[in-house]
Amino acid sequence: MSEERDKVELEEGTLLTAISENNMDQFREIFLEQHPYDQAKFFVKLEGHDRLIVYHFLSPEEMAAVFENIEDEDDQYETYLSEMDPTFAAQMLAQMYADDAVDVLNELDKDQVANYLTIMEDGAAEEIRELLHYEEYTAGSIMTTEYIAIHANQTVHSAMQILKNEAPNAETIYYVFVIDEDKKLVGVISLRDLIINEPDTMISEIMNERVYSVTVAVDQEEVARKMKDYNFLALPVVDFRDHLLGIITVDDIVDVIDEEASEDYSRLAAVSDVDSQDRGPFSAAKSRLPWLIILLFLGMFTASLIGRFEETLDKVAMLAVFIPLIAGMAGNTGTQALAVAVRRISVGDTQDQTLGKLIIREAGTGVITGTICGIVVTLVVFIWQGDIFLGTLVGISILATLIVATIAGAFIPLIMHRLKVDPAVASGPFITTINDILSILIYFGLATLFMQYLI
Amino acid sequence: MSEERDKVELEEGTLLTAISENNMDQFREIFLEQHPYDQAKFFVKLEGHDRLIVYHFLSPEEMAAVFENIEDEDDQYETYLSEMDPTFAAQMLAQMYADDAVDVLNELDKDQVANYLTIMEDGAAEEIRELLHYEEYTAGSIMTTEYIAIHANQTVHSAMQILKNEAPNAETIYYVFVIDEDKKLVGVISLRDLIINEPDTMISEIMNERVYSVTVAVDQEEVARKMKDYNFLALPVVDFRDHLLGIITVDDIVDVIDEEASEDYSRLAAVSDVDSQDRGPFSAAKSRLPWLIILLFLGMFTASLIGRFEETLDKVAMLAVFIPLIAGMAGNTGTQALAVAVRRISVGDTQDQTLGKLIIREAGTGVITGTICGIVVTLVVFIWQGDIFLGTLVGISILATLIVATIAGAFIPLIMHRLKVDPAVASGPFITTINDILSILIYFGLATLFMQYLI
């Protein structure tokens, strides 16, 4: 692989020279040999004036392959399209797989979209218009209409003929879907089965009638999970009356899995996903500040709580020393429990019974970790400060804190899930701050209660 | 889809009855119609005595399909295999795709593996033995040897004949790899191309000579990234002299992406990945305690730091009130910066220049968020406590803390990456605790320095 990559990097210089010398033949000879992903990587690195030359070197169809492979974080679709001749742009969009064209058009405003669709050839425009309807993050929004469908009363031979004709345009030819006269999905057959069976076999005899499908409005995360579990290379999308509308291919699902995981990850750390991309400090600060300000006010609330115990603090200033330790441990265990619960929910284990068991398990885990950490702390504080009562106070606070924080860490995302809020928004810092508050209440509550032993 | 799932759930009852009545025909009629993933889900829920009956109902080949679809978290391979007749078990392992069989055998001890390989038919044993050599998490460990290879001097027609013969055993037939007499990889051709071209076309004319491959020892994460970027359905694996050894298929890569993302996620929260699975509180506590104990001692260190400022604290007990706020904000911004840096590294943006830019960007972000949060805090504390100096002290501490914590959050994972340590092990709680310490030093340092204004 690295060999191929090295070659691609070597070719970059030659391609740039070809552009600057306006040498179309040399450019095409090298560029069209490259994988479209490498083509896209090269294209997005170009300056504006060089891009203009590339549009003239390539056909709309060739440019479509480049566009299909531009990664989301590099997207400047609007700029690129505005640089192109509108007819060229419309032809290119028509040549792209419909789902990819829709991704591009979703970045533009409505007027621009309407303009391109007007210039475009009717069939392609119609396909794209249908897909533009579906809401983001649903099966409909990631499906393509370029699938191959046949009828059950055909033979393997005639199915293979259809397949040969449609292969250049279909996004996948490895599954062929079987529909009835009403366009209802009745079966599926893989290309593997078509090849193994005799040419005169009827499709109805060999097709698989137990065909898994998803309805258009289903969340893309659910689609991804099913495709991963069942190892499908493509999954048909139907409306609520089982009419075949499109298919979702595995390459789109790989992207979904990656995006969703990175979304959960970013939320655990309270950063928006946009932030991991290459933006300046202002946009990074803008995306993080809302969280920080919320956390700041929660922190002020914690401070006001401690303020209420000022009298206790005045008497035994030493108490303050253990605040970060206790609050920190509460935050740590809470984050651990949170991560486990969010993960559990996101892999789809959401039966009441399973979640009930999870809470009980977390409570048990809190008791065990709390007991052990509590004993360790008691001993360390006793040895360090020579004060067994202070040690016991801190130790018992840790025990109580860890139990409460672990349960809270698991319970809050579950409640959010029940309230149909995505539990991943209960980010680590949020849980940490909630647990700060709980731990301070426990610690100073106990200290105030047993003040006479401390002085 | 839900329809299919509903049907599968309905069938469960009938299958259980068939088992209890020892009705093999009824069981097979329903069970063999199901998708292997559903079969596996049903199988792992069975009690031991019911499983024994299932082994008698199914052929080794049918059982192999079930085994291939058992998910890692449900694995009790050792138990299952020990329940089977050894010859049946060996036959089943031989029927499985070699990469899946190796996954199962990796759970057993060496003696057991040797036993099964001895009973097994030679060809299959040889294949498995080869794959067992490769280290975990490398391309070699997830590849399979069941690919289809042809020579360049064949025609499309003869290639299709080979494909038809090998289709039942190959893990994918959608890519055919072209090798020379030395078994060196020289090209690739997709089934799509074979179908589109005329039967008498030579493979050498239509094959793609720019074939991307990976070497056996490459990390599986790198393989996953390439397959995702290039949308490959399969990727050939070669040795360092370009001999074709096996292929990796997209379904295995989907699992890798999911695992790696979930690993990063778990580490951010300082839980081991095992923990998200269904284990009891003792094993959960056991996996979390090491982290908690380390964090506990770091927390004790923080406490001892505050202890050094006991004199300052004794004079102005009010200072203690803001400890959790300042330490908390440091932890939050640090975690944000950490998540961004880890994510950046894990998507492979690891050129020095990019990472240098990241640090500068994070510093800028820290200055902006610090300034805004600092001003907000100063105002709130002034209004609340009526003490402009205390407000300014807390505000400046927040400013300094946010800058330092943001840089630390980004810098520590980068240093770890440079030292070839996986930066994801610098979990959120670890960074949080480091930042607790830095923030306490800043806050109490400033307070002690300007003590005269506070009293």
From TrEMBL, chains A, B:
Q: According to its UniProt record, where is this protein located? A: Cell membrane; Membrane
> Per its UniProt record, what Gene3D superfamilies does this chain match?
CBS-domain, MgtE N-terminal domain-like, SLC41 divalent cation transporters, integral membrane domain
Q: Principal place where this protein is found?
A: membrane
Q: Which domain of life is it from?
A: Bacteria
Q: Which InterPro entries match?
A: CBS_dom (IPR000644), CBS_dom_sf (IPR046342), Mg_transptr_MgtE_intracell_dom (IPR006668), MgtE_N_sf (IPR038076), MgtE_transporter (IPR006669), SLC41_membr_dom (IPR006667), SLC41_membr_dom_sf (IPR036739)
The CBS domain sits at: 143-205, 207-263
Membrane topology is: Multi-pass membrane protein
The record's annotation in CDD domains points to: CBS_pair_Mg_transporter
CC per GO annotation: plasma membrane
Query: What residue intervals traverse the membrane?
Result: 289-307, 319-342, 363-384, 390-416
Which keywords does UniProt give here?
CBS domain, Cell membrane, Magnesium, Membrane, Metal-binding, Transmembrane, Transmembrane helix, Transport
GO MF entries: magnesium ion transmembrane transporter activity; metal ion binding
- What's this protein's family per the entry? Belongs to the SLC41A transporter family.
Query: Quaternary structure per UniProt?
Result: Homodimer.
Q: Tell me the function of this protein.
A: Acts as a magnesium transporter.
Recorded protein name is Magnesium transporter MgtE
Q: Which gene encodes it?
A: mgtE
